Amino acid sequence: MPQYSEESRVSRRNILCTCGAAMFTSLLSGTLGGTTSAHAEPLTSPVPEVDRLAVRVVTDSYHLAISPNLNVGEVQVLRFGMPPAGKSLLEEFGLAMHLESKRGEETRNILLDFGFTPETFNNNIAMLGISPRSVDALILSHGHYDHFGGLVGFLKQNRGKLRTGLPLYVGGEETFCTREWTVGKVEDFGYLDRNALLGAGVKIVFAPTPSVVADHAFTTGTIPNISFEKVLAPTRMTVGVRDGIGCSADKLPEAKQTAKVVPDDFQHELATCFNVKNRGLVVITSCSHRGVVNSVKRAVEVSGIDKVHAVIGGFHLAPQKADYVHETIVALKKINPDVVIPMHCTGETFIEFIQQEMPEKFIRSYAGSQYIFGT
What we know:
The protein is α+β, with helices and mostly antiparallel strands. It has helices at 12-15, 20-32, 118-127, 145-148, 151-157, 194-199, 292-303, 322-335, 348-357; strands at residues 16-17, 37-39, 42-43, 52-59, 70-72, 75-78, 96-103, 106-114, 137-139, 167-170, 178-181, 187-188, 203-206, 212-213, 217-219, 235-238, 240-242, 245-247, 261-263, 272-276, 280-286, 308-314, 339-343, 370-374. It has 9 helices and 24 strands.
């Protein structure tokens, strides 16, 4: 297993939250008792194992209706295909996924990120036949609008269909800061409406340390910067709450509490992971602002599992130069996952490089596609 500096090395006993059915039940019980938020608690158990995982891309930038089904190694790839006349999957610059896992007779359903708009997210959820009633938990990887834009509209449309006290896992208070996009012309980049979430009966679960989600998945908690990767800051956050909107300064990391505006460093960003029986880790990076290599190494560290079966998600390499992208390819070769499935903000330079250097591990992703890991 890789070695890390004393700054980044943390005992698994101290960084994972309470595991298994007891944790999930206690979260729901807290909600039914009237509380509206919770914090993850330390875990002493290993990460859970599942027999099977199916990752469905709900929202992404591309859809190719004539792309065929295929198998890449032990991974089954199912494409959505041609929609019926008069209907269509919608694409946009955003990311959303549906995660269905099985262990024995148990099935869990998680929604991870929610795309840019509720119109796209709600349309695609319906087209893909995903039942809101089946959802056990929600996860938001970070506080960027292209990952949470569809959430509140989804909750409103499905009021009365979702489970009472449905938990939403976030990496920290920074998730709720108001933001501006700072690349090129400065633009308002919106905010996640905490009151709308609570009004919809969602329980906000803060998970700055790794947490088990719905008995089957786990999140990485804060992702330390231990590789060559550089954290870009395409947005800045305004600190404080006004008219019920924004983030509370006293709940932010100490260095940010006295600031008014700070560049995003994505300390609150999470990756979502599964330990698939006889396969290894499936690491879903979502956007990788903290670095795709850092995200995978964090998953290995907190789980104690060296084998990486799949790396999936946005790798945030589109803004990077070719040399940096190639260095990422080199690092992924050393990690040696069985498959790599880039999405969203990864960029075409990475796609070109991986097709040349890791063609047997590369899977092209489209909205509506489903990736099945395990038996």
